[in-house]
Amino acid sequence: MATSAIDGKDAAAIQAATAGVAVCDRSHWGRIRVSDDDRLRFLHNQSTNDFQSLKPGQGCDTVMVTSTARTIDLVSAYICDDDVLLLVSPSRREFLLQWLDRYIFFADKVQLTDITDETATLSIIGAESDAIVEKLGAGAIIGQAYGNHITVDDVIVAVGSGLASPGYTLILPVSQKQQIWEQILELGAVELSDRAWDTIRILQGRPAPDAELTDDYNPLEVGLWQTISFSKGCYIGQETIARLNTYKGVKQYLWGIHLNAPATVGDNIAIGDEKVGKLTSYTQTSDGYFGLGYIRSKAGGVGLKVQVGNTEGEIVAIPFVSHDYP
Fold first, then answer.
1. Average pLDDT of the segment spanning 125-151
2. CA distance 265 to 281
3. Does 247 score more than 90 pLDDT?
4. 3-state class of 113 per DSSP?
5. Please, are residues 169 and 160 in contact by the beta-carbon 8 Å criterion?
């Protein structure tokens, strides 16, 4: 996935998301409601995190994986009194609805509802996001754990911006979207475009479907340790993930790469004549060129000098992922 050179407006918004506060309209992301009595057990069995330990008002990130633990999507889940709301990547909305539906068996009390069109999602991002959430009447959520959320006037306000930056995610009826959007801008947030969001995503290492999340990679290679429960019972893909963890068998990791010149998604990453990985995302910023790529574990990590296509690069850590065994 490539992002073209950003303009001055996007650069200002990225700066605001870093040092001030920005707001991004993520309404094109998918929202799936999972309801009925078996909803937590069902999600527990279909993804990597421990849903059965969660209570209403809590939330988590989880990875939907295939039976061989290949990544489908990184999903944010919010546990409410009567249902669970899943925030899924735009390109995975229809696929996940069909995929989850396949695993609902006759006796399961689980209902799936696509509520994307009747709802909206806004992310407030940056160091000064607390002040805006306070003025929106949701100050009680400030300082709580990631994924925790409260509802104020039909608006769910959850801890976590969707990026590595501090912030909050709002899920609300589409009828309230324009009013709340304008209110957030009036309170001083700078509008962050989809393109600017994607630039930050790449700089911070949030993996995306069709780029870092594909049939080629598992959640441990991506570095999504925070989404994986190693103590819960059986779930789809669990055997593969447990075996990789037990035998320290992760063969490649996702890293950031500072590049000396432009590159192309899909470029091979090499050390000398030896191919050690592949570039999966690329962006150009006011500070230069940057990419994400998988690098073979034995090749090394931070500080490693590599050849990416026709340019040179250096491996750097990215805040969204972790390469540590828990």
1. 98
2. 6
3. no
4. strand
5. yes
Q: Cα dist. 173→152, 158, 181, 183, 319 in Å?
A: 12, 15, 12, 15, 32
The residue whose two tokens read 């899943």 is: 86
Residue 200 token pair = 């930050």
Contact 124, 135 (CB under 8 A): no
Residue 100 tokens, joined: 């989850």
Kindly state the tokens that stand for 85.
Answer: 């709301």
Q: What is the pLDDT of residues 45-104, one digit of tens each?
A: 999 999 999 999 999 999 999 999 999 999 999 999 999 999 999 999 999 999 999 999
Task: Identify the residue whose tokens are 């805040």.
Answer: 319
Residue located via tokens 């010149």? 261
Q: With bands split at pLDDT 50, 70 and 90, how would you rate the model's confidence at 261?
A: very high
Report CA-CA distances (Å) from 242 to 36, 42, 248, 276.
30, 20, 10, 25
